[in-house]
Write a structure and sequence with these properties.
The chain has about 160 residues and is an all-alpha fold. The chain has one domain. The chain has six helices and no strands. Helix 2 packs parallel to helix 6 and helix 5 packs antiparallel against helix 6. The mean pLDDT is about 90.
Amino acid sequence: MKKLSDAPLLPVVLGFGGLIPFVAGAVGLALGGQAELQAANALPVYAAVILSFLAGGRWAAELVIRGDAPRGGILLLAVAISLAGWIAVPMQVWARPGLPVNLELAGWGVLIAGFVIQYLWDRAAIREATFPEWYLPLRLLLTGGAVLSLSVAAFVRWSPTFSL
């Protein structure tokens, strides 16, 4: 495996810049008050957009590499990951006390699972030479940052006594 230092600078800088809303959302939730309300809406939407972005990259790579005969499984998984992120957002919005399932917590779980699945899928693409080797350490760090931020967000929202 190549090192992150082998990656071109621009994808590294832009990738880490993309973590800013994840971290800001988790911090906003932890702050409480108006920041929490804004972050509770903005963070899952941003996470869903990024999941769609990552899955769209796989869709595009499949069409570029196998344009005349794209594999249906690749295209289907890309759509499934995008839809999972989209479904996670209304799950959180529709969460109401007294429901048999905590939809908000389930929505955070769907987003976290989506990022983990996308990372594992991207690992396979690197082994297949769909993506360059330097992409793996970058994706590991970026996925770790996103999953950690979403996990903190879920913990803060699930724990009624947490506040900074």
